[in-house]
Amino acid sequence: MDTTDLKLKQCFLAVDDHDKALYFYVEVLGLEIRNDVSYAGMRWLTVGSPLQPDVEVVLEPPGASPDISEADRDALARLLAKGLLRGVIFTTENCDALHARVREAGVEVLQEPMDQPYGVRDCAFRDPAGNLLRFMERSA
């Protein structure tokens, strides 16, 4: 089987408030809206970088699957509120400038920009829902 044609299309982040998430990802980070559709009582919201037109971040409620139990959905919502669900890592050409912009928006800072021994400068924040977001700049 030839797998050279595989590419990432979507990744998923749980959010508890689509409007807060939309503001953060579009107005603060500068991503663009790809889809914002209501369907069957749900909201399909995707954002992405203009530099990566084929990759989308889906912002969905915790436990959005129709097959999940109410107890599991509640457990995921509690984990999200504690900031215990995984996040994503973005690359940037200027970690310090991005850090300043995100910090000015009042987002929770987890790590100030710092040089890492594995060849990147990075920083970390929590989005408004509590997801971990890291921003890394490759060292010269």
Automatic annotation (TrEMBL):
It holds the Pfam family Glyoxalase. Residues 7-138 form the VOC domain. SUPFAM superfamilies: Glyoxalase/Bleomycin resistance protein/Dihydroxybiphenyl dioxygenase (SSF54593). This is VOC family protein. It comes from Streptomyces vulcanius. The lineage of its organism: Bacteria, Bacillati, Actinomycetota, Actinomycetes, Kitasatosporales.
